[in-house]
Amino acid sequence: MTQNKARVASKLEDESISSAKGFLPPSPPSYEEATADASGMCYKDTEMFTEFSWDDCNVRRVFIQKVYSILMIQLLVTLTIVSFCTFCGPVKDYIHSNPGWYWASYAVFFVTYLILSCCSTPRRKFPWNLIFLAIFTISLSYMTGMLSSFYNTKSVVLCLGITAAVCLLVTLCSFQTKFDITSYQGVLFVFCMVMFISGLVMALVLPFNYVPWLDVTYAVLGAILFTLFLMFDTQLLMGNKQYTMSPEEYVFATLNIYMDIIYIFSFFLQIFGTKHDQSTA
């Protein structure tokens, strides 16, 4: 009789415990249980480059549209300034007689580039990010326009057309090809260091003994390098390669692609361009 009472009491106690558990919230999972189904890394707001797969096509599409919309405005501003500096005689004479504006624009370009590249807060905070980007665009456009003013107008138009064609083909190739250039960051870095050291050597050698083929060779290598950088930056914003860019870094993505295009045009102008003294001789 005593054993039966103990069994009944134990059964009632188990039922009360199980019923009470139904009203209690479940215990949180452990770290191993929470991370067992993780398939890959996700981006953080503090990270610029990530290794995640962008499954949300809408986020990626809006990001790409925002980048290329700003980029088109930048290129229109640059094209306008280059056209004034190239085709307008009074403007050309003014910038040739006042080279101080070039160095002032270079200082503004360098400072704004450092701010947008190294400081995440002004790069992401609206409207300061667009203000700094506008100042950067105007300063670099003036530098490009002054550089173009020393060349023949036909050469400038020719190089503009070549740059537009190359950038369009590279962009289409970046969107269509399965080749992942974002995984070759080391190769691009070494190529960039070689070009940097070669530029320093040329700055010391050419003033004393000018070698035309060396200048052209350097320009060809520079055009190839920044064409690869254009493909690299384009695939970074696509989001379907090994490395991609955070959706909040639309200003930084626009900045990189815009600089790639400007440098490609500058190197093409150095290769195919004809200066005024050569054309009149």
Describe this structure in words.
The protein has 281 residues and is mainly alpha-helical. It has one domain. Helix content is 75%, strand content 1%. It is built from 12 helices and 2 strands; from the N terminus they run H-H-E-H-H-H-H-H-H-H-H-E-H-H. It has helices at residues 2-23, 31-34, 57-87, 89-97, 100-118, 120-124, 128-149, 153-176, 185-205, 212-238, 250-272, 276-280, and strands at 49-50, 244-245. A two-stranded antiparallel sheet has the order 1-2. Helix 3 (57-87) packs parallel to helix 7 (128-149) and helix 5 runs antiparallel to helix 7. The longest helix is centred in the first third of the chain and has 31 residues, at 57-87. The protein is globular, with a radius of gyration of 29 Å.
Question: Which descriptors would you attach to this protein?
Answer:
281 residues, mainly alpha, two-stranded antiparallel sheet
Q: What is the strand and helix layout of this fold?
A:
Layout (H helix, E strand, L loop, with lengths): L1 H22 L7 H4 L14 E2 L6 H31 L1 H9 L2 H19 L1 H5 L3 H22 L3 H24 L8 H21 L6 H27 L5 E2 L4 H23 L3 H5 L1
Antiparallel strand pairs: 1-2
How many separate domains?
1
Class by helix and strand content? mainly alpha
Strand order of the largest sheet: 1-2
DSSP helical segment count: 12
Strand content: under 5%
User: Roughly how many Å is the radius of gyration?
Assistant: 29 Å
Helix content: over 70%
Order of helices and strands: HHEHHHHHHHHEHH
Question: What integer is the average pLDDT?
Answer: 76
| End-to-end separation | 125 Å
The global form is: globular
Q: How many beta-strand segments? A: 2
